[in-house]
Design goal:
Blueprint: H1 2-18, H2 25-33, E1 43-56, E2 62-74, E3 89-103, E4 106-107
Antiparallel strand pairs: 1-2, 2-3, 3-4
Length: 108
């Protein structure tokens, strides 16, 4: 009986992993933080995806464009590059456009 179920399970596993064709919230948050100083110590709170749509890069790679809102927080502050953000500093963003393109290294 197990031998009969194994091919079925493999087909379902392949189907489920191939359906993961959109960026995760973690991918979107990572891209948002690239625009901020001290990105490695910051985090995104209250991420809201206002709108999403498929897009294509200039080179023809498939991707997604998101319109997002939320808050970037620096729990331990930031003193990098002459900035002086205190611990717990928060910066709100609204209707920020984020574009993620699928590459061999993941979503960028």
């Amino acid at each position: 009986m197990i031998k009969k179920l194994l091919p079925f399970c493999l087909i379902i596993l392949i189907f489920l992993t191939s359906c993961n064709s959109k960026p995760s919230n973690a991918d979107i948050e990572k891209k948002i933080l690239l625009e901020y100083t001290c990105a490695e110590t910051a985090k995104v709170n209250s991420l809201q995806i206002v709108k999403s749509s498929p897009t294509t890069s200039i080179l023809g790679f498939k991707g997604f464009e998101y319109l997002v809102s939320g808050v970037v927080e620096w729990p331990s502050g930031c003193t990098e590059f002459g900035t002086a953000l205190p611990s717990g500093f928060k910066e709100k963003f609204e209707n920020k456009t984020v574009t993620l393109i699928k590459s061999n290294e993941g979503w960028q």
